[in-house]
Amino acid sequence: MSHIIRRSLTTHLKKLTIGLIPADGIGREVIPAAQQILEALPTGADDPSFNFIYIDAGFEYFQKHGTALPEKTLDILKNECNGALFGAVSSPSHKVAGYSSPIVALRKHLDLYANVRPVKSVISDKDPNQKPVDILIVRENTECLYVKQERQLIDEATGLKVAWADRKISEYASKRCGKMAFEMALGRDKLRQNVPLEQRIWKSKPKVTIVHKSNVLSITDGLWRESVRSVKEKDHKYDSVDMDEQIVDSMVYRLFREPQAFDVVVAPNLYGDIISDGAAALVGSLGVVPGANVGDNFVIGEPVHGSAPDIAGQNKANPIAAIRSAGLLLEHMGYPKHAFKIYNAVENVMRKGDILTPDLGGSSTTQQVTDAILKAL
């Protein structure tokens, strides 16, 4: 999949305990699919084996128990698990008293400060005209508007409601997210050296594109921009990595017009969320784009798609994003060989184009796609 082997969190462990948090909607279908793939990996002397713990979180759990992220779930993740997979959460668009997103809370509790989303096209034998895309989006994961500091007042002059939201950007969080982006750019370049030049989508020097809106938000986005730039400017390790910038609105425009212009993209939390979801349209569906919430001591794989209540329980959900997220989890835990077995199996199925779920124009079920990937392994 040509993203990055960043660092090993668990290189010497042969028995990995993975927390499985299906949460809401189709999460309960795609997480078991990812589990099947992990269980089908080789089990030799140099291969990891897996123990799985199913744990609770989500809006549906909140409706029954009054909390979206029980303390028991946090305790199990912190004390018993080496990593985790999260399915999907149904966060309502209207205010629900006492509810907040469990995945946002998990990112903060476990200090998973970067959301890593590779967006890579697989040129299908049945659609050879698809745009070639190979972008890694690194999204700061703990700050911006996601600190959720909101308030509502009555404007004395008009008597009407006014809502405010505070936004947080810190030099500390910006620099460490920027550092991860530059590290990943180096790692992707190293992996590409094993691929013939004519087969690469990105053929130039590694590059990091910093996304911001500092022409308007000169203090907050200005600090983000300066902090990320300083990572390269103060460390000669990154001399081989090109750096450029994009104002967020022109970034969206260029992303769809010329996605081949981007290698690694690093963005504040909100911009990164929007860009990475939009980029999924370039490669067919939200159902194929994986993600990982990455910190220095823990990783949670998380597909980009939502809970999709309209198809939940119908065996129509695309399991590919969750399966690729399981690969991404292994990659960041120090098992690149096993991760790439998963990536290659998925790409094999997508390239043939015979067994696909409805979001990709097929008619296959969740389990049929999972079975095809199992066979490709």
Automatic annotation (TrEMBL):
GO biological process, one term: lysine biosynthetic process
InterPro entries: IsoCit/isopropylmalate_DH_CS, IsoPropMal-DH-like_dom
Domain Isopropylmalate dehydrogenase-like: 17-373
Coiled coil start-end: none
SMART domains: Iso_dh
A GO-annotated cellular component: mitochondrion
Protein name: Homoisocitrate dehydrogenase
Protein source organism: Rhizophagus clarus
Family membership noted in the UniProt record: Belongs to the isocitrate and isopropylmalate dehydrogenases family.
